[in-house]
Amino acid sequence: MPLNRHHLSKGRDLVRTAGDHASDMFAPLTVIGRGLRHHTAWAKERWRTTPKDRRGPTLFLTAAMLTGIYLLPHGLLFALIALMASAAWTGRAPKAPPAAPEPDVADVKLTALYAALTPYLAGPEGFGPLYHHEGGYRDVFSGWEFDTEGRLARLEIAYPPYFTDTEPAARARIEQVVQGKAGRAREYRFDWDEESNKLRIAALAPLPTDIAAQRFVAAPGEIVLGFTDENGSARTIPVHQGGALAQQPPVVWRTGPRSAEPHLLALGVSGYGTSSLIRSVALQALPFADLVVIDGAGTGEHACLVNRPGVHTVETSLHGALAALQWAAGETERRLTVLNAARHAGTAPPEDVSRPLWLLLDHPTELSELAHAEGRPDPQDLLELPLRHGRAARVTVVVADDVEARDRISPSVRATTRARVVLGPAGPEEGHAALGVPLDIVPAAQAPAGRGYARIGTGAPVRLQVPATVDPLDEDAPAALRDAVIALLPHRDTRTEAPALAEPAAGPHAGVDLAKGPGALRFRPLA
Question: Taking CA 510 as the corner, what is the angle to CA 506 and CA 515, rounded to the nearest 5 degrees?
């Protein structure tokens, strides 16, 4: 070993040995100093937390105690020994090591997402593949953003050019993987940029669910199906929400002779509010139209409309439904004849044909199955004339059914209903079949009642939250929501006018008893 290197090594050993001896020698002083710092910090904290009105007495008691210690024989010595012992006991524990920094949420979650996407986006071996088992997410992910709870809120993903982004099945597979890693409790919008091979993902805020049934600011013939995001509507309307007045963007369906989408088809998962949508539409149409309601499920969901002014009939049986729809077909033909005669004569049409007529059918496929079993005409076949000529005759058809029964809906209904609604967490296939186009939003695993999507004509699908329109005869429903629906019915609340109902009611606007009973479904004959 060279001489200079030997001296350097020996010098380092001497310094290390001296340092170890010094640390052993001054270890008690280090412990006592650490304890004194703890005592000082404790005293400062106690003084900071002591109220100002008690600081004076505290100083006086401290001064008295110190004076007593000073006057005692050997008091200062004993106090110093006690302080040193306390400081040594308090400072005996070594300084706690600093806590390990928490891992970056982006590194944890985006690494997991990259690993989950790799089996689907890794292609054949080539130069510089975007996705491979030893790659990192920073090469393909950009513009990520997390909310305050650490959940993914926004992300842009680059995918290889050989990925089949034009196939709905391939897209749905990637969307399912992303939602599984980002959380299934929220909805995500997927914007596929096929030209630049980019996928932009955005988590959507939940829509308000506390908007009850009410009179909405809309023109005659306009129906507010529900409410959507700010980007889904070109206007806002005032609504009563949570006891206050708020502005919300509505999903408006325009009906009438000049409407390009005169009829509506609503499909939904069982229990997600298709009957509530029918009730909401009926309450909005009643002030300017006459109604014929067909309750194919026979559950009495629309018994609150029985014998109301403007409601021709509410049918639950196959026989009554066939009679009502046959009358509607004949009424459509009569309206066409009268309206054509008025146009040729240059006169105004009579009032009985100018007032719109609405046909509301809830679960008609159940009546169709019953009709096929009994060898009777299919009620959906009787809708052919109102659907084909309803716009000219001012007849509007609204059909609501279960999403699983979409194959049993007649082709004429599917071809002529250009306004579409799907409610509930329907899958990609159900959403495509119900709306007619692929849905660029992945539904949440759990959604509130009335949540879904709407597509009016050839427009893009938008999110939809139907107003809470409960059955007022349902005793399990909240009283506030029941009262909101009762206030919209064409009569006053009979529950507060029980003495008046004890007398025989007369006139077309007589009160109706809202209590459930065997006579709740007595329908008046068709006009």
Answer: 130
Residue 391 and residue 261: Cα distance in Å, rounded?
A: 9
Six-digit token pair at 235? Answer: 């206007």
The Cα–Cα gap between 436 and 241 comes to 32
Which residues face 127 on adjacent strands?
none
Name residue, tokens 């009642």.
449
**Location of structure tokens 């250009």:** 418
The answer to whether 402 and 268 are in contact (CB under 8 A) is: yes
In order, the DSSP letters of 254-309 are E-STT-S---EEEEE-TTSSHHHHHHHHHHHHTTT-EEEEEETT-S-TTGGGTT-T
Give the helix ranges, DSSP H, for 97-144. 105-121
Tokens for 445, please give them.
């695993």
**3-class SS of residue 194:** coil
285 neighbors 253 (Cβ within 8 angstroms): no
Q: Is the pLDDT of residue 306 over 50?
A: yes
Pick the closest to residue 419 from 457, 387, 451, 453 (CA basis): 457
- CA-nearest of 424, 441, 433, 427 to 405 is 433
* 62-78 exposure pattern, b = at least 16 Cβ within 10 A, e = fewer: eeeeeeeeeeeeeeeee
Lowest mean per-residue pLDDT among 70-74, 145-149, 200-204, 358-362: 70-74
What would the 3-class secondary structure string for 407-430 be?
HHCCHHHHHHCCEEEEECCCCHHH
Per-chain mean pLDDT for the chain: 83
Of 433, 424, 451, 453, nearest to 441 by C-alpha is: 453
Q: Record the pTM.
A: 0.73
Distance (Å) of CA 287 to CA 20, 223, 353, 510, 520: 95, 12, 16, 17, 23
Least confident of 234-248, 258-272, 499-513: 499-513
Instruction: State pLDDT tens for residues 310-356.
Output: 999 999 999 999 999 999 999 999 999 999 999 999 898 888 899 99
Enclosing H/E stretch for 364: helix 364-374
**In sequence order, what are the beta bridge partners of 239?**
246
What is the DSSP code string of 419-465?
EEEEESS--HHHHHHHHSS--SEEPPSS--TTEEEEEETTSPPEEEE
Q: Which two tokens stand for residue 513?
A: 């008893």
